[in-house]
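Exercise 7.
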Amino acid sequence: MSTVDNPRLLGVACLAALCTIGTASARESLHPCDARDGMPPRLEQFLDAQGIDLSDRWVALADLDGDGREEALVYLHGRDWCGSGGCTLLVLQEHQGGWDRISQIPVTRLPVRLLERRRHAWRSLQVRVGGGGSPAQDAVLDFDGHRYPGNPTTVEPTSSTDGAGRTLIDPSTDGTPRCERAVIGDQRARPDPRRTDHAINPIAG
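Solution. The predicted structure, written as tokens, is:
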């Protein structure tokens, strides 16, 4: 009996095909983190002006607040930005032709994931924490209306992603970290941006 003659087998085959397409699409949105494809020029100028070397940063782009425009998640993995507990994650938002720092989150480890759940209209993030003798755990970072938590080690660890999500910065197993560079937005109205205008401060290695 062929698959076409059996509705149940046909349904299973269609579901498998859809899953394969979805997985392929997710992979296609991940680019080598050191590639400059899809990088906004003004974002690169902003990071250069902050003294962040190109070799020290991996950049993912994703819509965090549902306005159809991408925020930048910048993982700083150079010696000046890392300690025994991990490295520094920046969350930046475009504003009036420039970029503002929303959050600077030290002691984070990869992967960085984007969750479906929202707090104050912004999507929650998930990072790995651990090191210095502490076991690796996942921490969910909720937006508080102004920023994400400044220290993920103070967030209660979780073994659940609290709903579906996707990886924005993937350490990869082949030695080539991959970052998302795709616009995913639900076109929600965005509240007034919370500008900080703070300098980005390195931490001791």
